[in-house]
């Protein structure tokens, strides 16, 4: 298994792109074939060979994508088919970025996987998926600089308005503040804040706050061995009223109880690790 994660170097690109990441599953790797992708408020651009097939399953619904595709913000947990070897370069956009950088006529529908032509997206036949994947052998820094270069002309066409600017203020403080108090914190009416947030994000502050909590919780659990997990302590640390409250939360967000999750460890962070910045 090979992986890395790196932040953009270009400041204009970094306004909208949180990080680039790379993941390769080689034939000899014995990792879990169907890892679970937990809910995420960000859009990910997946750059992969045109003949590679991926599937994303939630309960009785299955979405498939051949070649490069978008994973749009999702409230659901997807089971991904990673049973075959693959190479992926991922571009993780910041939450809400697609509102400003989205292409004409394209929205970011929740829980949706959508095929994308990389060369058409970036306006150059040079910048296709094969080109970027061939750069991997030159190293992460080289690959990411080329991604900066390729993305910059598109991102420079982005638009900002009062709604996107307000959401940029909301997101960094959302995890640590009560939603009902956001109006007071930002000196805006609560109605204005909620309307702008919904317009930009396509979901509520409560939904995004829940995803932020889940990410923090999963990062903590990843660092613990099974015998070191004390669910009452975890519940208290992350602000749950008690352990049953935590159990209900995990069943709602990842469709699993704490005990089953600890036994399965089947989310992407468990299977592929917590990518550290290169």
TrEMBL record:
Stretches of the chain forming a coiled coil according to its record: none
InterPro entries: DUF6597, Homeodomain-like_sf, HTH_AraC
Keywords linked to the UniProt accession: Transcription, Transcription regulation
PROSITE patterns the record matches: HTH_ARAC_FAMILY_2 (PS01124)
Short name of any one Pfam family annotated for the protein: DUF6597
Domain of life: Bacteria
Keyword Transcription regulation among record annotations: yes
HTH araC/xylS-type domain segment(s): 164-264
Annotated protein name in UniProt: AraC family transcriptional regulator
Naturally occurring in which organism (per UniProt): Marinomonas sargassi
């Amino acid at each position: 298994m090979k992986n890395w994660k790196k932040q953009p170097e270009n400041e204009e690109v970094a306004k909208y792109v949180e990080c680039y990441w790379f993941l390769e599953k080689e034939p000899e790797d014995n990792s879990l074939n169907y890892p679970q992708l937990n809910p995420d408020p960000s859009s990910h651009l997946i750059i992969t060979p045109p003949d590679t097939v991926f599937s994303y399953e939630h309960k009785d619904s299955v979405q498939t994508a051949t070649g490069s595709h978008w994973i749009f913000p999702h409230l659901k947990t997807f089971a991904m088919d990673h049973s075959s070897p693959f190479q992926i370069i991922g571009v993780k956009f910041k939450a809400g970025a697609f509102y400003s950088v989205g292409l004409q006529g394209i929205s970011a529908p929740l829980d949706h996987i959508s095929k994308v032509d990389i060369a058409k997206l970036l306006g150059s036949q040079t910048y296709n998926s094969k080109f970027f994947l061939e750069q991997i052998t030159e190293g992460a820094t080289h690959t990411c600089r080329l991604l900066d270069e390729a993305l910059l002309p598109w991102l420079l066409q982005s638009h900002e308005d009062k709604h996107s600017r307000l959401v940029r203020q909301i997101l960094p403080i959302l995890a640590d503040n009560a939603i009902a108090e956001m109006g007071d914190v930002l000196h805006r009416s609560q109605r204005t804040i909620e309307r702008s947030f919904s317009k930009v994000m396509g979901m509520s502050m409560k939904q995004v706050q829940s995803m932020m909590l889940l990410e923090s919780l999963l990062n903590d659990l990843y660092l613990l061995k099974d015998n070191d997990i004390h669910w009452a302590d975890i519940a208290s640390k992350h602000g749950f009223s008690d352990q049953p409250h935590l159990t209900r939360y995990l069943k709602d967000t990842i469709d699993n109880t704490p005990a089953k999750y600890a036994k399965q460890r089947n989310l992407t962070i468990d299977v592929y690790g917590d990518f550290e910045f290169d």
